[in-house]
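TODO from last week: model Peptidase M20 dimerisation domain-containing protein.
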Amino acid sequence: MKLLTISTLAVVANWAQVAHSIDPAQELLRSHSESSSRSSLLALHKGLITHESISGNEESVGKYLAEYLESKNFTVEIQEVEPRTSSHPPRNNIFAYTGKSRETRTLISSHIDTVPPFWKYERRGDEIWGRGSVDAKGSVATQIIAVEELLAAGKILEGDVSLLYVVGEEVGGEGMRKANDLGLEWETVIFGEPTELKLASGHKGTMGVQISAKGKAGHSGYPELGKSANAMLIPALNALLHAELPSSEKYGNTTLNIGRMEGGVAGNVIPENASALLAIRIADGSPEDVQKIIVDTVEKQGEELDVKFMGGYGPVYIDSDVPGFETIVVNYGTDIPNLKGEHKRYLYGPGTILMAHSDHEHLLVSDLETAVKGYKALIEHSLK
């Protein structure tokens, strides 16, 4: 009983000593710093979402981002990218770094365009809603804050890290392809996309296909006098839905989505023209392998259909060798294949792709805060 009393008193004495050693001023300063960092993160994220930036209309958000980075003492280069169409405004990639060292060991990158339609920023408790909140302005905001915090802590220096934010990722990657003209190389590139705060170890390839039919218009009461373009196209599409496409253990099945169909002008008119746009997510092999399957399947239908392929690439390997991260394989495409070079490449970001491109796109404030920590860990690992 006496020994227990002595032990208990010793524990109390030790705790009192530890408690006394904690400087209340330091605790208050740390708490204020964390609160300030959180406010900066949420303000930047909100500012990015507030600027509508549907692909082709990125001018406003690009200007906002350039001004923000300049206000934080980054050196900012504006790289002009061709307007998406003659009716779209000018737009730019934003490239930034500290001091004069545009050549850095690590590049941090994401995209500033979004899919349509635009809908405004909204805060619902711990949730942040709005177009681009997940894909990919959550990545953009958390990447920038991560770099700012590492710079403030003296953990990265001039020449270590640069930032690149590109346009046009959602419609073919013209912004990232233009970035190759910067004439730079990096040891590591960290790309930002929604990965559920996990490191992606790879993603499927992709390919676009357009299939068109040309028939003969006429009165629907006399079908023998015309030829229905819809009737030519529909059996081919049905056959493609049942075609045997490549698969792999890592990436699963190659999938085919008939995303858009057009045909005819009225219910009582034999349709002269019909077309369909397809998106294929490639799980194995090359685009050429899939192209052959598509062409062979369409030709077996015995109709004169025009098949046009719109670029593509096979499955993409991504580095995932950083300790402390879970890994994931994703089915969507990224800008990774559009940036040339022999660099290591990582893919990471807050939010889930299941929310992206939807009418309920949102993420949690805690996702953003965790992503800042994740990007800091990735950046520090890349510079070891």
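Done. The longest helix spans residues 24-50.
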